[in-house]
């Protein structure tokens, strides 16, 4: 079906990103996976390319574009090439919306120019050992002491945590109340050079091996009160506000991964021969690819509609949950079937389909597990 989501500007941007990936990422991506992250200088290159500042107002050095469509283009082109930009997604799709919506003018003047240039990379620290999706159960505390907060606690599964210069840390600034477990949470934008701030283990993951994921700990870290984002005690409300965009970002990547898997399998089965015939000539191959292409088309339609809704300010938490749930499940089914069409070579890491398979598994976990999303959807339909 003809796609109407993107215009000429988006397609010109797509060519720029595609050329950049071919020149700067694809030739060295294997080295990044071995190291566990891109070299720090790569983020400066992304800054020079302008991708960090697409949605940042012009007064802070950005392009002032409000649409999510440019981020969707980047997701699609990375999936098409079988690469990633390391901590880029967290920096732009997770942290930036908080800075733009809740940052004061002084904070934006301080943080956004280096954010745009890649001089200041960011991450977000919500998950704690033992709490998982239960954000209200977090134990990291930030107690007020004069003109500072004293931060203590630990976080885990922090993507971008190894190379980050600032981390948006969710901490409890006052106790929860019996009526509301979610009360008392606040957001602090913590300088990673602070005394008492420590990066623990760099976690070894099944997939997404080019993005650094770490454990963090805070031991009497003094955070200036001017680095509190928004108002004290409203952290859970802020987190909930951005979940829809975060989940759409994951859904977009999942759709793009599934689409890339179909293209990889289609190319492979046309070249590979079995019993004197190309694999593509077998009816089973045709039927499997037809099934996959149909699922990808459905996922694309859902993603496109959700992107338009987000741009219009109308994407609800339930709609985002539906989109992420469906697209991540499609991703898992499609990538698995496409790997099967590769036979034994699908299990070999030098084939991109193997990387897509390993990377796909986390999609149904982070940004809200599938089980959490089903709960949100069920509540929305009043079940």
UniProtKB/TrEMBL annotation:
Q: Which organism is it from?
A: Actinomadura rubrisoli
Q: What is this protein called?
A: Acyl-CoA dehydrogenase
Domain (Acyl-CoA dehydrogenase/oxidase N-terminal) spans 7-119
Domain Acyl-CoA dehydrogenase/oxidase C-terminal per the UniProt entry, residue ranges: 233-381
Q: What InterPro entries does the record point to?
A: Acyl-CoA_DH_CS (IPR006089), Acyl-CoA_Oxase/DH_mid-dom (IPR006091), Acyl-CoA_Oxase/DH_mid-dom_sf (IPR046373), AcylCo_DH-like_C (IPR036250), AcylCo_DH/oxidase_C (IPR009075), AcylCoA_DH/ox_N (IPR013786), AcylCoA_DH/ox_N_sf (IPR037069), AcylCoA_DH/oxidase_NM_dom_sf (IPR009100)
Q: Which family does it belong to?
A: Belongs to the acyl-CoA dehydrogenase family.
Keyword terms, alphabetized: FAD, Flavoprotein, Oxidoreductase
Note the PANTHER family from the entry.
Answer: ACYL-COA DEHYDROGENASE (PTHR43884), ISOVALERYL-COA DEHYDROGENASE, MITOCHONDRIAL-RELATED (PTHR43884:SF12)
The protein's required cofactors: FAD
Q: Name one GO molecular function term.
A: flavin adenine dinucleotide binding
Q: Where is the Acyl-CoA oxidase/dehydrogenase middle domain?
A: 123-221
Tell me which PROSITE patterns the record gives.
ACYL_COA_DH_2
């Amino acid at each position: 079906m003809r796609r109407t989501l993107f215009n000429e500007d988006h397609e010109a941007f797509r060519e720029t990103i595609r050329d950049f990936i071919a020149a700067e990422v694809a030739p060295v991506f294997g080295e990044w996976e071995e190291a566990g992250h891109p070299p720090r200088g790569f983020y400066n290159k992304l800054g020079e390319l302008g991708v960090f500042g697409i949605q940042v107002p012009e007064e802070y050095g950005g392009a002032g574009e409000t649409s999510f469509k440019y981020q969707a283009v980047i997701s699609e082109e990375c999936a098409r090439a079988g690469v990633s930009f390391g901590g880029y997604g967290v920096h732009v799709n997770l942290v930036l919306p908080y800075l733009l919506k809740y940052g004061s003018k002084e904070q934006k003047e301080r943080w956004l120019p280096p954010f745009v240039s890649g001089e200041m990379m960011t991450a977000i620290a919500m998950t704690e050992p033992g709490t998982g999706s239960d954000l209200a159960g977090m134990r990291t505390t930030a107690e007020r002491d004069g003109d500072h907060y004293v931060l203590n606690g630990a976080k885990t599964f922090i993507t971008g945590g190894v190379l980050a210069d600032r981390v948006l840390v969710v901490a409890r600034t006052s106790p929860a109340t019996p009526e509301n477990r979610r009360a008392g949470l606040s957001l602090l934008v913590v300088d990673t050079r602070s005394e008492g701030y420590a990066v623990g283990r760099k976690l070894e993951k099944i997939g997404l091996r080019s993005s650094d994921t770490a454990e963090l700990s805070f031991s009497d870290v003094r955070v200036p009160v001017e680095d509190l984002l928004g108002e004290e005690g409203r952290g859970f409300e802020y987190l909930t506000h951005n979940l829809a965009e975060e989940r759409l970002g994951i859904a977009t990547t999942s759709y793009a991964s599934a689409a890339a898997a179909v293209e990889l399998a289609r190319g492979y089965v046309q070249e590979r021969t079995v019993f004197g015939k190309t694999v593509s000539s077998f009816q089973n191959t045709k039927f499997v690819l037809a099934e996959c292409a149909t699922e990808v088309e459905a996922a694309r339609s859902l993603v496109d509609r959700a992107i338009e809704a987000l741009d219009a300010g109308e994407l609800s938490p339930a709609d985002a949950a539906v989109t992420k749930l469906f697209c991540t499940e499609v991703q898992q089914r499609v990538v698995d079937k496409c790997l099967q069409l590769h036979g034994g070579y699908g299990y070999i890491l030098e084939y991109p389909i193997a990387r897509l398979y390993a990377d796909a598994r986390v999609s149904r976990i982070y940004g809200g597990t599938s089980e959490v999303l089903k709960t949100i959807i069920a509540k929305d339909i009043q079940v």
